[in-house]
Amino acid sequence: MFGTKFSTKDSQSYYNYYNDIAKRVKNREIDILIVVNMFLTGFDSKPLNTLYVDKNLKHHGLIQAFSRTNRILNKNKSHGNIVSFRNLKKATDDAIALFSNKDAKEIILLQPYNDYIDDFNEALQSG
After folding, report:
1. Which of 47-65 are b and which e, b meaning 16 or more Cβ less than 10 Å from the residue's Cβ?
2. Three-state secondary structure readout of the chain
3. Deepest of 57, 74, 81, 109, by most Cβ within 10 A of its Cβ?
4. Whether residues 60 and 115 fall in one domain
5. pLDDT tens, 43-81?
6. How many CB atoms lie within 10 A of CB 39?
7. Same domain, 50 and 110
8. CB atoms within 10 A of CB 21
9. How many structural domains is the chain composed of?
10. Burial code of 109-122, b = ≥16 C-beta within 10 A, e = fewer?
11. 112 Cβ neighbours under 8 A, 6+ residues apart
12. Are residues 90 and 113 in the same domain?
């Protein structure tokens, strides 16, 4: 698609690949980026707004990964979204308590998606 050709045969080639991907994400040339480790932590791109997680994360790695999407961009992007395919509730609560405030989890986390659906259906039926 981009007419590039990179290799993982040596560290310089991989470094060039990494920098090319980082530049394309920041320039909004790439809409979806599937990662294992390298872009999960230590990478910052304010336009990113959704992180789909299918990895058991904890402590520092969890906070770092989640923070990838929580960079404020402008008035239209004041927070990010995390969609988790793993049950990370306890790990998330533990990480927040460790790195922030043990009571902060009730302030900074939204309810699980199904809670919003239940509330919506209840309001729909009663109203």
Report:
1. ebbebebeeebeeebbbeb
2. CCCCCCCCCCHHHHHHHHHHHHHHHHCCCCCCCCCCCCCCCCCCCCCCCEEEECCCCCHHHHHHHHHCCCCCCECCECCCEEEECCCCHHHHHHHHHHHCCCCCHHHHCCCCHHHHHHHHHHHHHHC
3. 57
4. yes
5. 666 777 788 888 899 998 888 888 877 777 778 777 778
6. 19
7. yes
8. 20
9. 2
10. eeeeeeeeeeeeee
11. 89
12. yes
Whole domain around residue 23: which residue ranges? 1-31
| Residue 15 and residue 37 in one domain | no
More confident of the two residues 29 and 41: 29
pLDDT at res. 44: 65
pTM over 0.85: no
- Tell me what pLDDT residue 110 has: 66
**One domain for residues 48 and 105:** yes
Both 116 and 63 in one domain: the answer is: yes
125 pLDDT tier (thresholds 50, 70, 90)? very high
Dihedrals phi, psi of 71, to nearest 5 degrees: -80, 130
Q: Are residues 41 and 77 in the same domain?
A: yes
The pLDDT of residue 91:
92
Q: Which residues contact 27 (CB under 8 A, 6 or more apart)?
A: none
